[in-house]
Amino acid sequence: MPSHFSAARGAYVMRPSARRTEGRHGVRARHDEHREPGEAPARAGPERLNVKVVAAISPQLFAARDAAYRNATVSDADRIDAMVITNGAYKLMRDWADDPIVHEYSLSSDWDDRWRTGGSIEEVMEEAHLDGAHIFEAIERFAASAREAAPASRTTGGRRRALGRPPRAGPLLA
């Protein structure tokens, strides 16, 4: 895992995808002090899931990086072929990925538009669906949808067809 100094870049790759083939896709994780949201996807087994995990810290710092770094970390195509895991509100991640399909596969503490009831950190994380079990289940669902969509398309066009929706006309530019 990269050094904490990588956060000064605004975004960095926590875990590269296992192989660059059909069905390559990314998971964007935003995390604060608690370890679960960022750490669980970073540990996802490369032999099982072909996911790239990117820590998305600050869109402003990321915009200050050169275009080559930005494209290597999160390309325009990655922004529409992704899921987001955040312990904040999903709308705060729209600078990174803002697409209805991305939202459908993403995890955020406001998934049900309700306040959390409280309790221990573990209880709150489970209620928010941000505990390890929910994270792994969501990543596996996302990876499985990419495998199903891969024969049709390497982009979310195939994922959109798998969900019974028309493909997007072009990439989302953030």
- Tell me the radius of gyration: 15 Å
Q: How many β-strands, per DSSP?
A: 5
Helix content bin: 25-40%
Mean pLDDT: 75
Structural class: alpha/beta
Number of domains: 1
N-C termini distance:
26 Å
What shape does the CA trace take?
globular
Q: How many DSSP H or I helices? A: 8
Could you give a short account of the major beta sheet?
A: 5 strands, mixed
CATH hierarchy: architecture: 3-Layer(aba) Sandwich
User: Secondary-structure element sequence?
Assistant: EEHEHHHEHEHHH
The CATH class: Alpha Beta
CATH topology-level fold name: Rossmann fold
Low-confidence stretches: 31-38, 166-174
> Which strands sit side by side, in order, in the main sheet?
1-3-2-4-5
Kindly estimate the percentage of residues that lie in beta strands according to DSSP. Answer: 5-15%
Name its key features:
174 residues; alpha/beta; Rossmann fold; five-stranded mixed beta sheet; 8 helices; 14% strand
Brief sketch in words of this structure:
The protein has helices at 36-42, 59-63, 67-73, 76-80, 100-105, 121-127, 132-149, 156-162, and strands at residues 11-15, 25-30, 51-56, 82-86, 107-108. With 174 residues, it is an alpha/beta fold.
Describe this structure in words.
This protein has 174 residues and is α/β, with parallel strands linked by helices. It has a single domain (4-161), classed as 3-Layer(aba) Sandwich (Rossmann fold). The chain is 36% helix and 14% strand. It has eight helices and five strands. The protein has helices at 36-42, 59-63, 67-73, 76-80, 100-105, 121-127, 132-149, 156-162; strands at 11-15, 25-30, 51-56, 82-86, 107-108. Helix 1 crosses helix 7 (132-149) and helix 7 crosses helix 8 (156-162). The radius of gyration is 15 Å and the shape is globular.
